């Protein structure tokens, strides 16, 4: 299989690394397409055997799968400036937030589009991707794509494309919410006089341990919280402040706003 990555940024390169790491493609069969020459030497150091071209150089694209990994805001410009024609049997996999399959099909004049929403832990093979496909894509074509997605972590097929905006808001953006909370905890540690490095260690190990406890327990999240929050104790004091300030509501509101933004990105 030959794969072209249109937009070799964070996600495009994460995907490329996973495919090569799990030997799903040969490096010679990977074609990285960049916007201009500025990142050529850095990328060619990382991918010495792969083909690297600037967008304007590509007049014929020899690939079975083209992964579109440019920003949603750049997509229209990209689509309108293709110097190559998509061939009938080429598959397109978009990982762009918000842009609907129909819009991709229209702008590319091409029916075979799969839309996926991964997240940044794909870099470690620990991501999760929700994906859906245009009508007319066969089961075996979809399985081929799922095999690639699974090299970046787990993947879930969704029948309903509308849900992908929710997935974008939940797991696509999710790592940033987690870092945001971790950052607030580390800063609280520093404010209480704990050295930053030590605060980081306490917080990160707490998150790791709590994640595994949550994953290995039969208990609900409410019960797990109760197990930590002794009556009249410290956790209760913290949770009271969170509730008084509607922290959970605010987090939910933010996530719904991310979903709304995904819808707006379709234009
Ligand atoms: N970051 C994340 O966690 C996630 C991102 N996504 C989606 O993935 C996509 C990429 O995001 P991300 O990797 O973070 O963004 P980046 O900005 O890191 O990557 C986008 C890349 O596209 C390049 N590009 C822009 N125009 C062109 C062009 N005409 N030809 C070739 N390349 C071009 C940019 O080049 P240059 O640097 O020169 O501008 C950049 O390298 C987005 O659509 C986003 O919605 C999905 C899930 C998670
Ligand atoms: O913030 C964004 O728009 C992209 C999509 C999900 C994560 N990053």
From TrEMBL:
- Where does the Pyrroline-5-carboxylate reductase catalytic N-terminal domain start and stop, copy by copy? 2-98
Q: Give the EC number(s) under which this enzyme is classified.
A: 1.5.1.2
Q: In which pathway does it act?
A: Amino-acid biosynthesis; L-proline biosynthesis; L-proline from L-glutamate 5-semialdehyde: step 1/1
Q: Which GO terms describe its biological process?
A: L-proline biosynthetic process
The molecular function terms of the Gene Ontology recorded here are: pyrroline-5-carboxylate reductase activity
Keyword Membrane set for record: no
Q: Which reaction does it catalyse?
A: L-proline + NAD(+) = (S)-1-pyrroline-5-carboxylate + NADH + 2 H(+); L-proline + NADP(+) = (S)-1-pyrroline-5-carboxylate + NADPH + 2 H(+)
Query: Which superkingdom, per the lineage?
Result: Bacteria
Where does the record place the Pyrroline-5-carboxylate reductase dimerisation domain?
161-265
Give residues annotated as binding NADP(+): 6-11, 69-72
Gene3D superfamilies assigned = NAD(P)-binding Rossmann-like Domain, ProC C-terminal domain-like
Compartment(s) of residence: Cytoplasm
- GO cellular component term of the entry, any: cytoplasm
Q: Which UniProt keywords apply?
A: Amino-acid biosynthesis, Cytoplasm, NADP, Oxidoreductase, Proline biosynthesis
Against InterPro entries, the record matches this protein to: 6-PGluconate_DH-like_C_sf (IPR008927), NAD(P)-bd_dom_sf (IPR036291), P5C_Rdtase_cat_N (IPR028939), P5CR-like_CS (IPR053790), P5CR_dimer (IPR029036), Pyrroline-COOH_reductase (IPR000304)
Entries under Pfam families matching the protein: F420_oxidored, P5CR_dimer
Function of the protein: Catalyzes the reduction of 1-pyrroline-5-carboxylate (PCA) to L-proline.
Task: Name the family.
Answer: Belongs to the pyrroline-5-carboxylate reductase family.
Designated name of the protein: Pyrroline-5-carboxylate reductase
- What would be the name of the gene that encodes this protein? proC
